[in-house]
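Feature request disguised as a bug: please show the residue count (576) next to AMP-dependent synthetase/ligase domain-containing protein in the output. Example input:
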Amino acid sequence: MAFLQFTEGASQPPTASSIPKQLLPNIVDGLASIKPHGDFAFIPKSYTSYSEGYRRVAYRDLASAVNLAAWLLTEKLGQNAERQVLAHVGANDIGYPIYTLACVKAGHTLVSLSPRNTKEDHAALLEITRFKYVLTPAPPYSPTVHTILEGASQKPEIIHVPTTFELLERQSSHFPYPKTFASAKDEPLVMVHTSGTTGTPKLITWTHAYAAAYSAWAQEPPPPGCENTVNFLRKSRCFTPFPFFHAGAMFITLMDSLVNQKTNVIPLAGVPPTAQGIVEALKLVDIDVLNLPAPFAEQISKSDEMLNSVTKSISMVTYGGGDVSEACVNAWISRGVNIAGFNGSTETSPYPLIRPLEGWKPADVKYIQLHPVVNMKFRPTAITDMFGATLVRNSDERTIQPVFHLFPELMEYRTKDLFSPHPTDPGLWLYRGRADDMINAASGLMSNPIKSEQHISRRPDVAAALMVGSGRYQMLLLVEPADDTVSREEFVERIWPAVGEANEMYPEDCRIARSHVLVTDPEVPLRRAGKGTVQRAPSLDLYKERIDRFYEEAGDGKVGGNGSVEPYKVHLAMKQ
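Example output, currently without the count:
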């Protein structure tokens, strides 16, 4: 096998064995036993500055922190207490995987909550999970804790727990975990929620069987002439700025890092990650792979200075949580760095991908080739050249896809992701967006806004762009400036060449007229998910009244060939 495995069901730390599926707490204790000095992570010594450098966290440190947290939870909630759902709100660091595994050992389940949730989001998740306790460090409390309490009809109890640094400063005795995979596979590992990109966050409970299925995917042998892209990550040192409360970070820092013995290098825990912060971090510690949210991959690629700095030592950059532009991909490739996108969701997990042994042709880098074990079927949609991706349950119980551990009653799972086939290679597919993203114009024409949004957002003075127009004859561009000190008129003047170029990608009925550019209010930024991507549905809901009013004032006519709108007289309808 490609990864270490351990005995289970004993009160002592596990020893190496050959059990095909395992529980993550056993893997942690096992690694601490046979590879105590192996690197689990490198974390900044300070919450807010890189000036103090990084500290190393070995497997024995991780196991000790998990055991200490489990003992503390047992002390607070009682030995053999009824299983509780425990919300965790802490610094953006490895405390999330630590408390996830500590809750499992202590017989409870952690629910990870995003600080970007509204109080209504938190209230909805509280209603579903019925969590009675919030694990968080001693006051002052974070804004997230206050938001949870404000939205709760029944206030959860606050349990003060040590910070990650405090857990790592102490050595703990082993906390026995005598469960076996067979007995615990259907028990919860952790509760996470979707990012809310297309609406209200949905709660997902990953079981141990789900985690094992995800880990097993990566171990499937590739077809002849191919290699698994996960090979780039095995035993590598990876910088990961995904927020730890997000499912993406759970996959990377909890499952991938343990199963593939990958070392996590993380950013500052006390300030939001930024592209410039990534540049600063990489000056202090050597890494092999950059695991980036798509917005960061895009932002760094726009700056020659940042790109030159971060590509000095890395061999690969991966991106997820969204798509990137072709210009972004080309910028990374031009620096001699491999780049690969990972697709998937909180429900499905990232899909195992393969690539030819000789590597991709540069023109094909944005395409993905799924491992046959994924068993994805691409079915025609109403949109020309776009196919809906549907997972079909494998008949072999050994290779059942993770999503069917969440929904065991299903034989198929429609992902709502849209792909287009490669023009000459039938095994390659290009991600085109979500079915929820498509714009259904009043003319009956379906339009994919992603290309236009990506092209316009490539400009450094654009923070985000959304095309709007479902049920309308005329498309509208909702755009957020990177600098809100520039006047609206000057901003539109600057970005219009990029909008014009984007228009060339679409038929006339789907083009943006100069009169239909709505600049966001600096005091009302577009909603973003924890991974940094713009939440389309919540953002459009946020601006619904302004969009409706804009159409009332600017009109909803037909776009002429010169970019004018007919038959209405148009004007800018922006807040001055």
